[in-house]
Amino acid sequence: MAPLPESFALYSDSEQLSGKWWESFGCEELNGMVEDALVANFDVLIAWARLKQAGATAIQSRADKYPTLNVTGDYSHSSSYTKKATDKETTSDTHSVGLQAGYELDLWGRIEAESQSGNLDYLASREDLSTAAMTVAGEVVSRWVEIQTERQKKRILTEQVKTNETYLELIELRFRNSLATALDIYQQRQTLAKVTAQIPPVESKEQLLLHELALLMGKPAGAVTVADADLPEMADLPGLGLPADLLANRPDVRSAGFALQSADWSVTAAKANRLPSLSLTGTAEYTGAQLGTLFDNWMLSLATSVVGPIFDGGSRKAEVEKQQGIVDERLASYRETVYTAFKEVEDALVKEKWQKQYITARLAQLEAAKTSLSEAVSRYAQGLDDYLPVLSALLSVQELEVSIADERTDLVLYRVALHRALGGSWTDSLITPDANNQKTNDINVSNEG
């Protein structure tokens, strides 16, 4: 794999943060929503359930490292009948109870390899949980930002409707005084209708975003309300660290790494399975014809067995090839995950950099459009021009006002994407839902196998 660049395209002197980045937005309601989603989101709950399954599988994978001990018991009854001069019936009862132990010597490391593979699969599942949590946090913040944007756009459009109504009243007054034409009135009515028609889609999108937010929080649509708030001002770039830091800070990268290591151990296990295995067994048993004599007779036996494949139709050899193919697949997946992580950070940095310049240019364009509108209104009032320049300038101003609201939102969303791309360690303190009463308890997850 080619090494990552030594630095990102942009540089930041700020301290690198690994905690809950959304708290920097300064909204307590948003903080609470994210925390609620991290507990109740369905994708997170599914990830917890998969982690539980992976933990049980890991325990199963290392069970063969220890001896097995079973209790045995048996009872038999027989009856025979002899027909002679005097009929005679003979019955007998046999009771037995004992212990049976078994242990496979791990001569070639197969059992240890399977144990290591299972443990690494568990660690990969834990990182998948962290990835799901980071995704959910980012999605909740994004929906909150978009909801605030739609409300801001609605306020802008409502003010524009009032402005257009005022313009319409003035034109109608001028028309009654023979200073304006009917076409001026029709054009302004059309502009008013156009702006008014933009409000319903904005209200609809706001409701849909609220529904999406409710689902992210594990609640039914309509169960979540959001208070009005201003969009956060973008501070300086957070600490970026080095591209190589992504290998430790991104849970998806860590998960891909654990999956690759697990596949390596599976190859070792598959190779060892082609070699003979050595097992030890032992039994201790008490027997008796009656319960009272059960412990009068006892027997102890020890046995050793060696099993080695001679001909299996190529099954074990094919299993080795299969596991090696999985290693190749996961190696490619790991490389892709690492490069994708680096790309996502670079993409977010580039988008934010140019979005700031774009917003600055659009604001200058808005100021120019307002100046043009003022001049057009002045010339129209003096009878020097018709209404068309006023209408053109008015539409330009109003479209820019709505557009800039969206573009400021994009800037915030690019920062959200940057935080998500940088990863962090805040998922180490995730809480797990209680299976019985849905209460939550703090847990610490260690990377020790």
From TrEMBL:
The keyword Transmembrane applies. InterPro entries: MdtP/NodT-like, OMP_efflux. It comes from the Bacteria. This is Membrane protein. Keywords: Lipoprotein, Membrane, Palmitate, Transmembrane, Transmembrane beta strand. Belongs to the outer membrane factor (OMF) (TC 1.B.17) family. The keyword Lipoprotein applies. It is found in: Cell membrane. NCBIfam families: outer_NodT. Residues 74-83 have a biased composition (Polar residues). It comes from Pseudodesulfovibrio nedwellii.
